[in-house]
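Lab notebook, bench 4. Still working through the backlog of constructs that have no structural model yet. Next entry is a single chain of 168 residues. Request: give me the structure tokens for it.
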Amino acid sequence: MDPKVILAFVATSIRVVKELSGLELYRNKIAIKRVKKIHKPIAVVIEFHEDVRGCIIYEFDKGLAVKIVDNMVKEVYGKSVSELTNEEFKEIFDSAIGELANQISGNATTELYNEGIKIRISPPLVFVNKIDTLISHKQYVEANLDTVYGGMTISILFDEFLDLESIK
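Model written out:
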């Protein structure tokens, strides 16, 4: 478990969320844990490989995810999510939250590349309401970030070759 990798993803999450939504994330704690399950209603999984292998899971409380997407939608479409139909909201929500995770991961891997660590990432997989889905029994690193709208958890599982089809 390379601390550079962990810190790059946490720092980039804080920066990218602020850039895309204007929200401040505050780092609460980083811990090593075992038995990874999805704990929040919105999760995005991105596999990575090259010099470091594994996956990263971004999890969001519903209030935070909706607020981030609302701010992103206002920026792009000039209207809030409350003005969208349920169908439009679902389509835009999944796309926006996946894009957020993709931008965080892309920025973090670029920073790591500049430090000599090559990482390639997979396209994001968005999961809604998959709470308690088992991801791994192995050790992982978890960082908790907080806002006034709810929390975000970043879990990094190293050297995992996950069959993500089984959790869809």
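Notes after review: The chain has one domain: 3-162. The helical segments are 3-21, 62-77, 86-114. Flag for follow-up if needed.
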